[in-house]
Amino acid sequence: MTYTEEQACTALPISENSFNSVCVLPSGLMVEHRKAAMGDFIDFLSFINSQLYTRETSRLETMLMSANFSSIVGEFMSATIPKYCGSLVKNRYHNGHPDLIPAGMFVNNSVQYSSEGVEIKASRYSNAWQGHNPENVWLMVFVFNSDSASRSRRK
User: Fold this and answer.
1) What Å distances lie between residue 42 and 15, 32, 36, 126, CA to CA?
2) Residue range 49-61, pLDDT digits in tens
3) Which of 34, 78, 99, 121 has a 20 to 30 Å separation from 68 between CA atoms?
C-alpha cells in the first residue's frame, strides 16, 4: 500500500509489542509513562506535519537532518516523561547527564554529571546509536521509523 503525503502526516501508532513488560525501571518509571509520552509525541508530530502540509511544506522528519530530528525526539521525551512520572524530572543543568534525574535528589533538579537517572537517546535504528562513553546509568532509547519505504513522500 502506498500512502499519500497527506496520509503520511498522521504518524503511525506505537508498536505495543516493542516494550519489555518485565523490565524493572528506576525511580518509579513504568511502561505506561513511556507509552503516554510517546503518544504525546505522535500527536505533536501529526499536528505539526498536518500544518506543514497545508502550506505545501515537507514534513518535519523529512525536512531536518536525522540527527536534528533525533534530538527533537529525545528532548521531547525528556520534557514529557516527568508529566506522567512525578518521581523523575528533566535535568535542568545545561547539557547535564543524565537527561532525567530523580526529583528532588539534586539542588534545583540540576546536576552536571550523575549515575542516578536515565539518559535518553532517539534513533531510526534499533542498534548502533551514538552516545557518551560507556557509563553506569540507565539508557532509554526511542526507536522511530521515519518516512519508511511503505510511506511515499509525494504522490
Assistant:
1) 12, 15, 10, 19
2) 999 999 999 999 8
3) 34
